[in-house]
Amino acid sequence: MKLEQEQLLLHSLNFLVLPSRTRGEIELEEARRQHEAFVRLLREIGLDVIELPPDEGLPESVYVEDTAVVCNGIALITRPGSQTRAKEVETIRAVLKKELDLPIVEIADETAKLDGGDVLFTGREFFVGLSEWTNEAGARAVAAAFPEFPCTPIKVSQPKHLKAMVTMAGPDVMCVSAGKAAQEVLKRIEREATYTYQTITVPEDEAANVLYVNNYLIHRSKEEIPESHKVFEDVVDFNRRSLNMSELSKAGGCLSSCCLLFRRAKHIRNL
């Protein structure tokens, strides 16, 4: 089974409203330019992009990936580990249900914590990172929402989301950093996986988070990840595009965290 090819992308513009803890570190104008370049690239490779307006009351809502897990036309609404993000979830729930007409699955267990950044879908199975944002009850919620796929919890020892350490770089191909913590996570995945995957190992930790969509691999720029950029050049034999995420990443975000990908449905009304 291949990863879904034709996708609709839900993307928030809320990085224009920055978390106060990083406001002094981020160059706002450059962040805006990087954000615009990201959206433009996604459109160039054939994705439909729905952009949500910024909300000054939701400084972390640029990380739209954390609010839902969408697969096979069903949206599981998450329960982010940070309670301050509850309103973000309400916004995304309304868009997915009312505007895009997707069936919604809610998490009934009030003890559950689940961030979308901890949910890795390979096209064949789910791995759910057990981190400071996601717990066992959250992993069980993913398994219950998508029973047609194997779902395996994977312990994440560092204060990072699972997809900051490993992502899908192509059909049955994982991208993982060479760092000790990421390699430990990869070993756990390989030990528990139902299927076999190839891996691309990159020297820089920040290079591990990539997007594979519409037969394109999207990764960070040569200026940011020079050694890993060379690895991608050497081993990837299909379409590649790169983006500068230097400012967008300063608040802890990744390529995947700034978008929510799902298959295009018929008769969708654009926002």
TrEMBL record:
Provide the species name.
Answer: Ladona fulva (Scarce chaser dragonfly)
Q: Which residues form the active site?
A: 161, 258
Alphabetically list the UniProt keywords.
Hydrolase
* GO BP field: arginine metabolic process; citrulline metabolic process; positive regulation of nitric oxide biosynthetic process
Question: A GO molecular function for this record?
Answer: dimethylargininase activity
Under the heading Gene3D superfamilies, the entry gives: L-arginine/glycine Amidinotransferase, Chain A (3.75.10.10)
* Protein family membership: Belongs to the DDAH family.
Q: What is this protein called?
A: Dimethylargininase
**Top-level taxon of origin:** Eukaryota
Determine if Nuclease is one of this entry's keywords.
no
